[in-house]
Amino acid sequence: MMEFPKKLTAKLTERQANNALRKLPVPNGLIDLSSNDYLGFAKNDTIFKNAASILDKKGITANGATGSRLLTGNNGLYGELEDLLSDFFGSGSALVFNSGYDANIGFFSAVPQRTDVVFYDELVHASIRDGIGLGRAQSYKFKHNAVKDLSRQIDRVRESKMDSDIYVVTESVFSMDGDSPDLEALVATCETKGAYLVIDEAHAVGVFGKKGEGLMNELQLQKKVFARIVTFGKAMGCHGAAILGSDSLKSYLVNFARSFIYTTGMPPHSLATILSACEHVSATNKEQNQLRTNIDFFKSELKAHNLESHFIPSNSAVHCCLVEGNEKVKKWSQQLQENGFDIKPIMSPTVPKGKERLRFCLHSFNTEKEISAVLLQLSNLF
Ligand SMILES: Cc1ncc(COP(=O)(O)O)c(C=O)c1O
Predict the structure, then answer these.
(1) Atom 5, ligand 1: which residue's CA is nearest?
(2) Among the atoms of ligand 1, which is closest to the Cα of residue 175?
(3) Which domains occur in the chain, in start order?
(4) In angstroms, rounded to a whole number, what is the distance separating the alpha carbons of residues 256 and 262?
(5) C-alpha distances in Å from residue 150, one per residue of 115, 176, 351
(6) Atom 10 (ligand 1): residue with closest C-alpha?
(7) What distance in Å separates the CA atoms of residue 214 and residue 206, rounded to the nearest whole number?
(8) How far is the centre of ligand 1, averaged over its atoms, from the C-alpha of 231 (Å)?
(9) pLDDT in tens, 94-110
(10) Mind listing the pLDDT tens digit for each residue in 266-309?
């Protein structure tokens, strides 16, 4: 067998030296304070059984999609799901993608054109960065959640690029920070400057909104954006994603988004699971209310343990405690894990050097006892 290329070995060695070598974890049976399963839907029996009954009632026994959606993979559940999604999220239309990663690379590689400009928050998810990287538009980052910086940059670019379409992209809840931009100010700025606003709601779905429709709906801003990206692999507990926008946007993506066109469609049982999860959140707020109670309790315990100043302010299910340095954050997470809590270290290069952190993901199924205990353990580490 040929030797593994030396240049690649050198890169792995460098990662190891920086204490940043990624390895796949094995299931550990610890108290879950790290998954994106905010509402416990990934293990929800009712959702599982209803998904099976959706397939049963329709006599669907297929295991796979058999092809891309433009060829043989567009089974009947897609239409039903996309109608339900556009209703649920209050958008003109919805187009389902195989994942949030696919949705973002599909959108950003296809929509902004060569002469256009994309502004993105410096901390947006890798899938958005990768999509922009695949596209042909010029792109500039703006400071995290800094609408004024964005506004200044748009003005500067407008001076020389009168005819460019401008796209602005950010997240309504940041995956590695848990915080949110001032979405009202962002919408107002984009309206004034004539920019197309795109919001990734991956970590807001299921958590914000009357029925979990996301933060844009909660703020009644859903009609004021060009597009939203919603994902189903987090609070909805399944897999897949959708881009919400106008009928024209849907038609454009069907024609030009390569991550939509050149891939096999989702198997019917995945679509039935998303349908079932949407039906479940429409029928009950039980899990969402419990999650909200736990978020409030977590925040009150942060105060009680004098930990507030170490955390990035957040109202979402994601709460991050800054612990500088890969070595230290890894050690602290190991100590919490030894005490029974699954808390993951988020290390550089996933986050900027010096901004390493412990990421606490809260769930509807976490108990107050667990939350108090883990924060007590954490306070003893400082
Ligand atoms: C903000 C954001 N967008 C998109 C994605 C990708 O979604 P998916 O896991 O469905 O590929 C993630 C996943 O971590 C995310 O955090």
Answers:
(1) 100
(2) 16
(3) 19-38+285-381 (3.90.1150.10), 45-283 (3.40.640.10)
(4) 10
(5) 19, 21, 21
(6) 100
(7) 7
(8) 7
(9) 999 999 999 999 999 99
(10) 999 999 999 999 999 999 999 999 999 999 999 999 999 999 99
